[in-house]
Queue: 2 jobs
Job 1
Amino acid sequence: MGAQKKSATARVSEDQEELARNPLQAILLADSFATTFRPITLERPKVLLPLVNIPMIDYTLAWLESAGVEEVFVFCCAHSKQVIDYLESSRWSSQPNFSVTTIESHNSISAGDALRLIYERNVIHGDFVLISGDTVSNMSLTQVLQEHKERRKKDANAIMTMVVKKSKPSPITQQSRLGTDELFMAINPVTKQLLCYEDKAEHSKGFISLDKTLIADNPSIILHNDKQDCYIDVCSQEVLSLFTDNFDYQHLRRHFVKGLLVDDIMGYKIFTHEIHSSYAARIDNFRSYDTISKDIIQRWTYPFVPDILCGSSAIKVERQGTYRASDVTLSRSAHIGSFTFIGQGTKIGNDTKISHSVVGEGCTIGSNVTIEGSYIWNNVTIEDGCQLRHAIVCDGVIMKSGAVLQPGVILSFKVVVGQQFVVPAYSKVSLLQQPTQQDSDEELEYADNTSGTGELRSDKLNGDIAADLSETAYELGTGGVGYIWSVFEGAQDEEWKHSVAPIPKDKLVKLMLDKDEDEEQLTQDGNVLSASGELKADSDDNGSEDDDNADSRDDYGFFEKEVEATFLRAVHENVKVDHAVLEVNALRLSYNMASVDCAGAIFYSMMKLAVESPHHSASELHRNAADIITKWVKLLKSFLHDIDEEIEVILKFEEMCLESAKEFAALFPQVLHLLYDKEILQEDAILRWADEKEGADESDKVFLKSSEKFVQWLKEAEEEDEDD
Amino acid sequence: MDFQVVVLAGGSSKNLTPLVSKELPKPLLPVANRPVLSYVLHQLEQNNLKDLIVVVEGEDTALVVGAWISGTFIDRLHVEIAAVPEDIGTAGAIRAISHHLTAKDILVVSGDLVSDVPPGAVAATHRRHDAAVTAMLSSIPVSGPLDSGSSGGKDKAKKLGRYNIIGLDPGKQFLLHIATGAEIEKDARLPKHILRAVGQMEIRSDLMDAHMYAFKRSVLQEVLDLKDTFQSLKEDVLPYLVRSQLKSEALSNRTPQGEENGNEKVTSQNNQVFVSRILANSSTPSFHDHSSENPDGSAPTRKTHKCCAYIASSGSYCVRLNSIQAFMDINRDVTGEADHLLTGTSSDPNNNIGPSPKLGTKTTVGPHCMLGEGSEIGDKCQVKRSVIGRHCRIGSHVKVVNSVVMNHVTIGDGCIIQSSVVCSNVQLQERVVLKDCQVGAGFVVTAGSEYKAESLARKEK
């Protein structure tokens, strides 16, 4: 015991030494490689968007600094120049013991590309923290780093530790709070190893699938639906090289994490670390922007709150969570409600009511304005009588008097809303036109979002955009400037999920109903299952044989499909018979099948092809079958070594006639005869088949009866032979 | 306690041939020289669950079993014997005796369960949660009955096929998912809607369903009426109830509580719910209540029912006698490590050797052995880890290791019996060698023959 303790402490000190030798490094991806913040991100990178009046990246960097990270590599891609300029002018460029280095790229379209590039630069020398520049946290990294290192010592394959946090308890808010997709994780409760990660509605059925071997290996697995992924990862160096090895990995979670979980050859493992009291969340979309802003105002992220982060401009925190900069001009009759932030130099007129909102610097807000749950950035002018509810208003926007923003509206930079104009709910308005190439394929969306397009457009903005706009100005009322982006199909019903506006009640009801539907599907599925379950014997039976059968049946199904595909390719590409034989043989070996199975599968493919090729009558079908059989007789025969295999072909044919290709039912005797003529089937095989079937059920004998004559003839022929 | 107990004793079992016969049906198969059924009945008696229906397959079997029960438990238990046709499944059996069920809750126990888990605890758990169904789960014994011996070297995936995949809530009180390993072809499919409602689910593959269930009678009867194709409690009824627990179809047309006690007043119902909540130690309503609520917090629109689990503590003994291997293992365990199961029953607790055994000179009977009343053993014999029944005559120089020998067996001189089962009235002539064999009742093994891994039985009919 004592010795053990000693070694443990020794190890700790060793770790500390190691820490001292290798400064803790972090990779900060200053590009989310996503389009959720469009149209705003067409003009400014996401990491520089103000979150309670401070650029997001500042929260991330401040946290990294406080967590003991000494070297940060900021990877910038979209609008890289803006990011670099910002970092150079900010306080981060001159911090002691905290170096911020930027890595610029113009052609990376995903996190995978970014990490490959960083690998090439060869700047990471040990464990590092991987984070994106839109993460707000105040967690301490000591414990997770420690855990990671300990695990690495025991198991070199434990290359990554993911930070997760429990989300809010109510089933409805679980996913809706941050507007992210539902996330299911399976974690081993003892080792904390991540076993399954499912974040998209890709298996939108009401089931999660856990691989059998996982269950066999882990006697206890906890499936979580109540955890959120904080997108803070502690990685070992290998992670970078893995990205380089697997050049198709793009998305950190969807490709990398899942890829590792599925791949059991390399045996890399991912672990999780759950944080309880500290804060960590990533701004993924407008909804999480809203949620996290509120969390910051309510000081969950302490010490990363506005009044501490920007120490220079004195921001005072007042009662009810109201933050006010020093030189705000506030009318006496203006009412500032709870949890509101008012930035420097902002003027607010009479009888204006502001609550649960953030108002940036240098804004001018007129009289009788109502602002509720909205985010107003810098230098915005809001004239008298405007109403804003749950909207995001970017820098330089002008709202003419009486304009109304309905919930969920996004006004991008310098948009002008005309007098009395009502911007409909969930609209996104920008001076830039909506990019026309909208592709549902995410990979392409990444491509879309690269700096190239974005910057080109902003160049254009400075030039002739005014001319462009004059034509379409009516979109935003008289005197309005900007395009209302149309919501493209498919995303329409998703819009409310990701918007800043709270989810309306009817949508919540819909959410519940969706679940119901899931459930119904499920019960139906279940019934199907139990129907098959009934066939099973008494519960005394432990069912291991069933299991084996199920497995092999399944395998055979795959095998048959493969053979069919091979055969079709052979037909269409005129592959030589010998080659086809080779290919089928290869399949046979890889699926561990017998040549009986091959014969069955090939015959099946041939007949299927015959049925699927165009025909109008039974005789044409017969001719089709005859043609195909004649042409590929050699392929089939190379798998027919003995009578058993030939019988298998007959059985297969019978099965097809009963199930997949009923059209053949009428032609059964003819085709049987054809097969006999082509010397595919020997008479022994047919006779033995007939004998076997003799004892079967009546229903099984349909085909025997229909081919009775032929069998009879064969028998007689045989007898004659014997007589001779 | 207002619990009615249904003991599904079964009848002949294919898995147990040649051990069982018309004269010796499965419920009466001797485990440490007393019928396997007595273990369950004894446990029930201990837990004051005395209102029983013993369901037996086949009229003849019912007579035999009934005679034994009335002889043994007379005046101690209130037992009804019900005969049902063979091969109608466990659900079918309950359906057949449905009209006998009157109590509020029904405890269904498999008659072949040898266990020290108190059924009363399962019943109490069931009541505490006011559950629709409560299933007893036990951890898989380390050297499990199915695992040992011949099947030892199988790989994990196959092993999994035999066990259940069970989903539990974080408090390990509710049963959220159940599937037998055999149903799972490649991967386990777990229902998302339940997971959404609960938040997290623990998937265990190291638990087995011990075939002891407590059902709410109304629910059980309704499900059986509604789904007339259901054959098995374990494979149909229980998974169905678990699957539909957040959207209870079985109860959709009635109120779940108190409907059978027509005299119960509405107010007391509410009280009951309240009390049950306190008992459940949950000041916050469970997820069942959550998910039955509308998002705007209005009255519940959907019925839910609770499926609970009682997990036997890891030290407890819980094995079902459903194979020959299990039969041997249970015999060995009951005389050995799990001998507390024998205490309190009729026999003398510390001395497993019956009252009047006659042992020859230089004969050794090792520990963990049992020797029935009136048996005689000749000179220079060895008996190790074996059970020998009543009135057996064993010659000299006989070795019996790891075996079960039933009653009235004659074993000639110089026989060697290893890991075998020898049924009643068998005659083993001189120098017979048996290894891994089962010898059916009344069989005569001729002198000098050697058998290995064979099943010997008299040809009947």
Job 2
Amino acid sequence: MGLLSDPNRRRALIGMLTRMPVDWLVRTMQARGLEVYTQRFSRKLPFPDEDKERYMVKGTNVYGILRAPRAPRTEALVLSAPCSPGNENNQAVGILLGLAQYFRSQIYWAKDIIFLVNEHDLIGMQAWLEGYHHTNTTGMDWSPLQGRGGSIQAALSLELSSDVVTSLDLVLEGLNGQLPNLDLANLFYAFCQKIGVLCTTQGKLPRNDWDTTSGYSHAVQTMMLMVLKQASSRPWGDHGLFLRYHIEAASIKGVNSFRPYKTDATTVGRLLEGMYRKLNNLLERLHQSYFFYLMPSLTRFVSIGYYMPAFGLLALILLLRALDLWVQLSSPPTRTTEDGVEVVPASPGVLSILTPLVISHLTGVALYTLPVLSQELAVEHFPVSETEAVVLTAIAIYTAGLALPHNTHRLLAGEGTEQGWKVLKLVAVLYLAVLLGCTALINFSLGFILALTLVPLAAFITPHVPKTLSAVVMVILSPGLTLLFAVFFFQELQETPVTLQEGWMLYLSVISQGILDHALYGSLLYPLAALLVYPCWLLFWNILFWK
Amino acid sequence: MAAPLALLLIVAVTIRAALFRTSLANLISERVEVVSPLNAWKRVVEGLALLDLDISPYSGDVFHETPMVIYLFHFLMDYAEITFMLADCLTAVALYLAVKDYNKQVFRKQKFALEADRIPMDCLELIRSPTEMYYIPLKVAMFYLLNPFTIVSCVAKCTCGCLIYGSALLSAIFLALATYQSIYPLTLCVPALLYLLQRLYIPVNVRRSSFWFYTLQYLFMFLGSLLVLICLSFFLLGSWDFLPAVYGFILSVPDLTPNIGLFWYFFAEMFDHFRLFFLCVFQINVFFYTLPLSIKLKEHPVFLIFMQIALIAIFKSYPTVGDLSLYMAFLPVWNHLYRFLRNIFLVSCVLLACSALFPVLWHLWIYAGSANSNFYYAITLLFSVAQILLVSDYFYAFLRREHHLTNGLYLKKKDGSEATLVLK
């Protein structure tokens, strides 16, 4: 009681304890001979997240530049460690400072090395990167950087929660599913092998029996984890934001599990020093190897030449369906009425096609803008927090869209014709094909998952299939429920299965993270799903209930 | 027909005004598919600033517009958005009136042919009824105004030229103006001449003296007005700087920024030794089709104009989507050819997919760094191929319709069985 009973004072105390020790960091870095600068930033969140509890996030980044002793200062490397509250990442800064001291005494550095400690994880990193490159894409407020180091060639981000590790996990997935060059992953893995440190990907231990069934299924599970992480379009480590600026970056997570063989901090330090010496020797940015790959393990990868044809075949289904509809439309069968007079069915008006299109897109726009805008209204009337309000509004608008076909047909005076739904389906199928193609080019996993669920739907939906069964199947294959299944599947793959209740809460938090990611870093999943994929799905829903 | 046109104009202006106010305007004016070094607004502003400082706007390879444009915008600087919206509206109205006029002519010709019993009976279904022709001018205007490409070009404040027809003298003057702006409308001189000859019922026969007389008259008017414009520019600017900066730039293609045309990739990878040769080949390609097409289409100059505009838009050195929208605006005029078009589905799918893929592959190349210029050029090539297919398809359909009009719709071989038509 006492100090901790008042929530405001409690928050202030926690804030004091968990705020970054800026002055101490500055003094320590300066003692190690680096040029130290700080950057203040602040960001107004669209809605307060569970972690942040406030609309305004303020912080300070601290970075020290180790100038290359003899080379011109045209290139730089970055070593970053996020400063998170609590025990999450409490060893990384220590290793960073130790490395800084060691690096300072070496003479072989040809590039400047920037040691960055960022606050609030990704928000701080975004502010620093924007300040470094003089861009302002996300509306963040930051103070300009006083010191710079030339164009950044590569970056590594450290996450260490204990001083002995059993394995190092390499995290590659970045914002919008962008991946660093495969050369960086190969470099790290090869060096780990040489030093004798166990290196894993997706947190799964590597196996040698890749030609047995269980070994194969383990590899598939690892790859599926990567696919799901890439499809979520979030940066899965601080490195994820570097990729957008054409800087190859990866995150290294130290994992301390119950294995007998432990690696101490000195070996981790030697590992990082070796990595930085390798990156120091680069004459050009890493670009020779693949940028598009999927990794079932660190020794094997699936390149774009293998996985794109699979997607191409799915898109082909849509194109063939479109061709089929076109041929049907250009040679309409004439109907004969009772007196034997041949009647050619009238071609549908533009309005009967345009109306579902416009209404679907307006619903998509509502799904995109209303949840964040109407959170205050929702909090007034319902006993929920802001985050829950946003997420539940989104789900409500999503389900409200299901009621649309029944209402639009009341609006339209005339009835739809046989030709009408065919034209609408042709437009919808072509729209879906182009949308999936563009998505797969930018973020293959997202495009493929959407294609897997939406293509069978698009191909088979007509007004003539049994309505209730197809309605159920359509709802199950809709983007929202695909996300729910993906959440459960993801937890299953990570060997931490969740109950229905927990899974549902996780699903809600995933939606809120998606909206937050879009507002903070420019992730494309939420606008894509709300503005383009959902209206496309609604068009097919309209076709199903066409009268 | 005035009321729907007015409504259309209001809708178009509203869309443009709304887009100007959003942040999309800045985004769109940066895109390479929409602006080219010839007609980017940023460069016009730069040229104006140089002019204000009493330096020649053509120094420094930034500005490549003609001097008339720069003096025009000197006065209209603050009203730039309204100027462009007005220009678009005027173009639409002009197209509307022009097509209405053309429709009247075609209908008249058709009536004469019917009365002269020159068309076999089974071709009646090919004849266009007055009702459908009534709506065509409106559709043309609609296509032009509501075409997203046009909106996008307007928002990007391009200074695309437009062709307006009127009497012989006026048409010569406007054609000279268009040629002065960029060299390629020179090829439109021939169809314009043919059109006017047709109106005056002068037969196109090399042996007739009246043909030569009129041709010389027209050419004289055209060259005269062109000369006047160039000399006027000289007096306005005070030097001959603009000749290499404008025409030299268009012809010698020094700027290789990627765009939706075919030049940039080729010339980026070409050795200097062969540069002149390939430059000649590529530039001749634009002008080359004029003569054969005019000989084939001498009875149908308006279709010839359409083909020429389309070919210019595809093969010119710095095309943008604005050029595309201009010739696409003419497509409703040839609605009646729809039943003879063979590839329309494929072409429209490819054009749609390419338009969506342009920004995606640009992003992957320039921002993400995962792709390279080959990907973007592949889409450019595909886009050009689709356009060429569209144009050739319309040409085939037109010729086929003409053939049917003279020879009957259901063709029979000599022994009475059904014949098929093959385009050689």
